Amino acid sequence: MTIDERSMTSSSTIRSDEVARFNRLAATWWNRTGPMRPLHVVNDLRLGYVLDQIAQRFGRPVGALEGLRIADVGCGAGLMCEPLAARGALVVGVDAAANNIAAAQLHSKAAGLNIDYRVGEPDAALHDDESFDVLLLLEVVEHVDDVPAFVRDALTHLAPGGLLLASTINRTLRSYLAAIVGAEMIFRVLPRGTHHWAQLVRPEELEQAAAACGLVPGERRGMAYLPVVHRAWWTRSLAVNYIASFGKPASQQI
Ligand SMILES: C[S@@+](CC[C@H](N)C(=O)[O-])C[C@H]1O[C@@H](n2cnc3c(N)ncnc32)[C@H](O)[C@@H]1O
């Protein structure tokens, strides 16, 4: 979309209340024992999945990312961007919270990594002619307005043959008990109000949004997190946290 076209549309996938809350958390983002601790623990687990999926899709050794173009949309302060850039990927990180992008830039600079961080939602922050081999939507779709539009805006920039990896929280009774009552109210490992049950996204809803853009579903895995000991592991159940992969057919044009 051109800047002129964008200025004529008032629709946005940004929920200002959510972005304001994430902006307030930016300074603590890289503190492994702070409010973002669960995200750090989950990140360690999901990095293995991300590297495996990329290796399978592109026929490379696990962790060999040299020259791959990766966009991490809703990247926060860059927990996933950094290990990917450190392995040679060309990473663009996009986030609607300006404070997160500032924290991400500071941290990656200190780590000596070259990551292209941008503030905004995908429609505005990614350029019309830009395409990526891998698109990451990690723990973000449950925080946006209009999930299908957000997924579509991001997928516009996925190259033919590309890979989408998306993780989020299912909308089930179990997720209400685990992610909201357990994590926010009882164990308080996440700030109160981090998740709103009605905004959580079922696997079939994510699949529909990806299918609407012509993507084919791949492997899905459940993730479990135990707050008391701060441990995460894979499960077969997708009832709470899950991650899913989707492939864009090589013949499909953007
Ligand atoms: C729970 S955090 C996840 C961060 C990162 N993906 C991770 O898993 O480590 C969600 C992030 O999505 C961002 N976000 C929310 N709505 C967005 C939108 N419409 N466009 C881009 N980023 C958005 C928030 O600012 C926040 O940093």
Walk me through what this model shows.
The structure is a single chain. The protein is α/β, with parallel strands linked by helices. Helices cover 37% and strands 22% of the residues. It has helices at 3-8, 16-25, 37-58, 81-86, 98-110, 122-125, 147-155, 173-186, 203-211, and strands spanning 69-73, 90-95, 116-119, 132-138, 158-169, 216-226, 231-235, 241-247. It has an 8-stranded mixed sheet with strand order 3-2-1-4-5-8-6-7. α7 (147-155) crosses α9 (203-211). The longest helix is centred in the first third of the chain and has 22 residues, at 37-58. It is globular, with a radius of gyration of 17 Å.
Quick summary of this structure?
By secondary structure, the protein is of the alpha/beta class. The protein has helices at about 5-10, 15-25, 35-60, 80-85, 100-110, 120-125, 145-155, 175-185, 205-210; strands at about 70-75, 90-95, 115-120, 130-140, 160-170, 215-225, 230-235, 240-245. It is about 35% helix and about 20% strand.
Q: Strand order across the biggest sheet?
A: 3-2-1-4-5-8-6-7
**Which architecture does the CATH hierarchy give at level 2?**
3-Layer(aba) Sandwich
Largest sheet: 8 strands, mixed
Instruction: Extract low-pLDDT stretches.
Output: 1-10
User: Structural class per helix/strand content?
Assistant: alpha/beta
What percent strand?
15-25%
Name of the CATH class:
Alpha Beta
Q: Overall 3D geometry? A: globular
Strands, total number: 8
What Rg do the Cα atoms give? Answer: 17 Å
List the secondary-structure elements in sequence, H or E.
Answer: HHHEHEHEHEHEHHEEE
Helical run tally = 9
Integer tally of domains? 1
User: How confident is the prediction overall: mean pLDDT?
Assistant: 93
